[in-house]
Amino acid sequence: MNDATTKPGAAIPAKLVVSQSNALNLVVIAVCAIAFPLIPYALHVSDYVLNIFMNSVTYAMAVLGMVVVLGYAGQINLAQAAFFGIGAYAVGLGTMAWGLHFWLSFALGMGAAAIAGLVLGLTTLRLGGHYLAMITISFQQIFDLVLVNWIEVTHGPDGIPGIETPTLFGLHLTDKRAYLLFCAAVLYLLLWFVWWLPKTRLGRAMRAVRDNELAAETIGVHTLRTKVIAFTISAVLGGIGGALYAAGFSYISPDNFNFLRSVEFLTAALLGGVSSPFGAALGTVLIVLLPEWLRFLKSLYLAVYGLGVILIMVFMPEGIWGLLRGAFHRVSKPRIPVVTSVAPLDFAVKEPVDRPILKLTNLQKHFGGLKAVDGIDIEVAHGTVHALIGPNGSGKTTSLNVVNGIYRPTAGSIILDGVDVTQMKPHARAGLGMGRTFQNIRLFPTMTALENVMVGGQRDNNPIHDGRDALVARALSALDFVGILDRAHAIVRNLPYGHQRLVEIARALAGHPKLLLLDEPGAGLNQTEKQELVALLKRLRGHGLTIFLIDHDMGVVEKLSDKITVLNFGKKIAEGAPQEVLRHPDVIAAYLGEGPTTNAAARA
């Protein structure tokens, strides 16, 4: 345990050294913000070059949407050009066919894109992987067909000409350079938003869903809602880009918003770095400029262009921005923030009541004809360590998954602190105070230990004050309690296995759990680490926390448990105090490979 806490019970704020990890971002933003929009003014470039700039700026807005939905939330979207087109056609039709003001048309485009993203998200995001990709492709193709064939509304293949640029604060942006400057300002605003998003509760939830959706759901993240919000934000960003594109080029047609455009947006995001808004903007510029640079190759330029993009994505999986960031960090050697002191972890455990904190009644879980859990009854008392043991295949982890909500029970009921949670989703159970760790560690590997624990502290029941500072303080206190405060800012995939176990426990503790479910917490640990784990769990019990424990190590179980329940073939065969249960004939027979019926017959 870290000794940074100087006075027990004193609320000492966490003191962090300023990080240099964002220095590259700040340098690039400053240079680009000043230089990019001024180039057309300084060089008096032709309209052709202005069009290239306009393409880069408006396409980059749509590609930022890919950063949110794919880079942050991990969801494949191959319909971004459709959202881009919705914004463009809202402005084109609104101003030219319906006689609406530009900004009203712009708002309609954003709203229509948001609705389309929301509806598509709600109907598809229960799927994933290639299924989601196929559905978004289908949506894109349907949008293409509508634009081409609904001539009465969309004007068909002829498109919509004569779209005018807007008026801003009484100034009509008829000059292309002035309009480009305005679009660049909008892009910078969107870049800031997408850069800021991962630091919010929603952004951390998105990244957790991307890294490990099951773990995110079980610690309190509403995964479906998070994915739908990400999809909707992506659609709105695409709609903004399309609306400004329409006014910038004064003409739109279905060819501008087809499936190939969606592929370009995806390629730009992957090329620049899909997890970084600045990388996405860089990738967009390259996607627009590379074909222009390679046109001297005539018929071969498309092949060379495609090969170059493939090689960059294969050999630089984090994109060009990831390569630049890595090189910058190697040169600058950024300092890792150091935590000097934190407040003690507040468990806020309520006084125990007469009823059990967890009550399982006739709990059953069948997989076809296999009865993995076959009618068990268990009551876990407040402030105790209740162990669930049994030989391999006895139904222990299945029982824990049913209690946690990962599996729906075939029959029976689950009562958590007087509330029936039998039909609740895992995130809802977490919101009522159920914490969980896994036999095979489920962390968010691309996030720091602190960020992992902060996600665990975001659950609905957590009685901390609103705001990031309170959440950070809670997460640091949890890390301090398990003894790895000094690793708070380390990326968890780089931590030793034993430290990853502790991060997972700290993540569960950050949410003020009433009941902590531990599935084989000692798995993979050496004897020294197991002894430290036993000491940690004893401290948890000393603070009044209730623990429901699964472990194969009978030494650990006997040292920690107040009560043991034994399963075999999905049925409860013994229950009681450790000394009594571990010497029970049916338990010994089960571990030696004999069923309880065989053992009873032998005794008879």
Account of the 3D structure:
There is one protein chain. Mean pLDDT is 85; it is low at 1-21 and 596-604. A hairpin with a 2-residue loop joins strand 8 and strand 9. This protein has helices at 23-35, 39-43, 47-72, 80-96, 102-124, 129-149, 151-154, 176-196, 201-211, 213-218, 223-249, 259-272, 277-293, 301-315, 319-332, 396-404, 426-431, 449-456, 468-482, 497-509, 527-542, 554-560, 578-581, 585-592, 596-603; strands at residues 160-161, 167-168, 171-172, 251-252, 358-367, 370-380, 385-389, 411-416, 419-420, 434-436, 515-519, 546-550, 563-568, 571-576. The longest helix is centred in the middle third of the chain and has 27 residues, at 223-249. It is of the alpha/beta class and 604 residues long. Helix 13 (277-293) crosses helix 15. It starts with 22 loop residues before the first helix and ends with a helix. Helix content is 54%, strand content 11%. It is elongated. The chain is built from 25 helices and 14 strands. The chain has a 6-stranded mixed sheet with strand order 10-11-12-7-13-14, with helices on both faces. Among the domains are: 23-260, no CATH class; 353-433 and 557-604, Rossmann fold (3-Layer(aba) Sandwich).
